[in-house]
Specification:
- By secondary structure, the chain is α/β, with parallel strands linked by helices.
- It folds into 3 domains: 196 residues, Rossmann fold; 147 residues, 3-Layer(aba) Sandwich (Cytidine Deaminase, domain 2); 120 residues, AICAR transformylase, duplication domain (Cytidine Deaminase, domain 2), CATH 3.40.140.
- The protein contains 19 helices and 23 strands.
- The strands form 6 sheets. A 6-stranded mixed β-sheet has the order 10-15-14-13-11-12, with helices on both faces.
- The longest helix is centred in the middle third of the chain and has 30 residues.
Length: 546
């Protein structure tokens, strides 16, 4: 334990600083301070000495140079057990500083403003603050560094319980937080300056410096039981994401795979402005529908493939009410409503539909009655995303880790519109078919490649995902759809490189097809579509998802 006898306080965020300083003074701690912080403490009646009085050197250059002085950093970096250090300090009139309380200029908040200028951004790059933080953190054997308001109460409590002393364990933890704080701060500056210095035509940054913070405890395990795992949130992200979703109910903690599937569900349903619901299994939608109301959308989605829905993730882009909550995980509803509909529509009378159990549910919110109903299902994790589709979320990069590095891209934030399509077959689509094709194209965007999806209206009825051959994906989609494939609309996430893929798509029973085009054999594929008597629309937009 080491006693805190002198503290230097210089904070940008002054929340709670008066109370914190008063508590320190009550334990006999001398306070040094600068600028606005010193004035705030003085106005509150806190005894304080100006840093410039201590150093004998004024604050200069519009407060740019204040604490960058040997009497400050000597007092922070001196090794108290080293006689040479202490003799030098005594000779030079350097007093020991046992605590630094610093939080930095609000650089991230400044550059987040739409009208920020380079000059404003540069003026909010803190120099003295990070320097003091790093000096203190390096010498944490003797010095405590406090860089977050959240730490104030715990620090005061420990000092009051220990005659003004802090333990080494506490100082070491504070040092970790300090280096993380300055590391994150520097990462934000790097990301900003990369944008400012990008060469003409350079679309991706030279450096990419995200910063992640672990959320809660480690996961039970990773993707498989022999792997370790944890969930992290990206600091400063425009997208809060599932890592920051609120868990409202659920006895079990989320797993590694739950986080991935919840993200897939979130991405699926917020693709649509109209009410939409989905069922995700192993990152792919086995059910997805939009309708005039969210209840109908959910029933349409669930009955798309109730076989695969067991242990899946239910996603909604509207608040879940009591009516929907009563359906979720309800085996009676599954047997009386969903299963008969599925059997009748597909002609599948043999496949086993296990139960109505979902692993998780995610939505923008839940009514009180809905939450009460869902809380009766102990093993269902209920997740709320209040900030469901924040503006600017597509500004974040899509990052995929590879051994030794990562590949980074902008997000697939676009969807094809009617204006962007080109009808290339003799047969023209009806208005209803064109609407279904545009819906199918959005669905295919969220299916692992190679992707083939079949839809009826605005409802997924057959999904072929993640196959090495597009022909195999078409076969799987047709098998999943059963009788519903007849007269369906089909989307392919990428071009048909040869006519055989188009023929296999038409053989599912689909009467209209949307695909990006772009093959050297597009003319042959178009001819094949005409020969099959199907409508084909080129979107000009590929949606690979690996």
């Amino acid at each position: 334990m080491r006693k805190v006898q002198r503290a230097l306080i210089s904070v940008s965020d002054k929340t709670g600083v008066v109370e914190f300083a008063n508590a320190l003074v009550s334990m006999g701690v001398e306070i040094l301070s600068t600028g606005g912080t010193r004035r705030k403490l003085e106005e509150a009646g806190v005894p304080v000495k100006a840093v410039e009085e201590y150093t004998g050197f004024p604050e200069i250059m519009n407060h740019r140079v204040v604490t960058l002085h040997p009497k400050v950093h000597g007092g922070l970096l001196a090794v108290r057990d080293d006689e040479t250090h202490m003799q030098e300090a005594a000779d030079l009139g350097i007093d020991m500083i046992d605590m630094v309380v610093v939080n930095l200029y609000p650089f991230q908040q400044t550059v987040a403003k739409e009208d920020v200028t380079l000059e404003d951004a540069v003026e909010n790059i803190d120099i003295g603050g990070p320097t003091m933080v790093r000096s203190s953190a390096k010498n944490h054997k003797y010095v405590a560094v406090v860089c977050k308001v959240d730490f104030y109460d715990d620090i005061i409590a420990e000092m009051q319980a220990n005659d003004g002393c802090l333990s080494f364990a506490t100082r070491q933890t504070l040092a970790l937080e300090a280096f993380a704080h300055t590391g994150q701060y520097d990462a934000a500056i790097v990301n900003y300056l990369c944008k400012q210095t990008a060469a003409e035509g350079e679309k991706m940054p030279k450096y990419f410096a995200p910063w992640y913070v672990k959320q809660g405890q480690d996961l039970r395990y990773g993707e498989n039981p022999h792997q370790d795992g944890a969930a992290y949130a990206q600091v400063g992200s425009a997208e809060p994401g599932v890592a920051r979703a609120e868990k409202l109910h659920g006895r079990k903690e989320l797993s590694f795979n739950n986080y991935l599937d919840l993200t897939a569900a979130l991405e699926c349903v917020r693709e649509f402005d109209e009410p939409a619901a989905c069922v995700i299994k192993h990152l792919n939608p086995c059910g997805l529908a939009s309708a005039d109301d969210i209840t109908q959308a959910f029933q349409d989605a669930w009955s798309g493939d109730p076989i695969s829905s067991f242990g899946g993730i239910f996603g909604f882009n509207r608040v879940v009410d009591a009516e929907i909550a009563a359906m979720i995980g309800n085996n009676e509803f599954l047997r009386e409503v969903i299963e008969p509909r599925y059997r009748e529509e597909t002609g599948d009378d043999e496949s086993m539909i296990i139960s109505a159990f979902p692993e998780c549910v995610i939505a923008p919110g839940y009514t009180d009655e809905a939450l009460e109903i869902l809380s009766r299902r102990k093993n269902v994790r209920v997740m709320a995303m209040a900030d469901f589709a924040p503006e600017g979320r597509f500004a974040d990069y899509d990052v995929k880790k590879i051994p030794g590095g990562a590949v980074i891209q902008t997000q697939d934030s676009q969807s094809v519109s009617r204006i962007g399509t080109k009808i290339v077959t003799k047969k023209q689509p009806t208005t209803e078919q064109l609407e279904s094709l545009l819906f199918a194209d959005k669905v295919a965007k969220h299916v692992k490649s190679n992707a083939i999806v079949l839809v009826q209206g605005k409802r997924l009825v057959g999904c072929g995902a993640g196959q090495m051959s597009r022909i195999d994906s078409a076969l799987i989609a047709a098998r999943k759809a059963g009788k519903r494939a007849e007269g369906a609309c089909l989307a392919s996430d990428a071009m048909f490189p040869a006519p055989d893929g188009l023929v296999s798509a038409a053989e599912t029973g689909a009467v209209a097809i949307i695909q990006p085009g772009g093959s050297v054999k597009d003319d042959d594929v178009i001819k094949a579509a005409d020969d099959q008597g199907v409508v084909m629309v080129l979107s000009g937009m590929r949606h690979f998802w690996h």
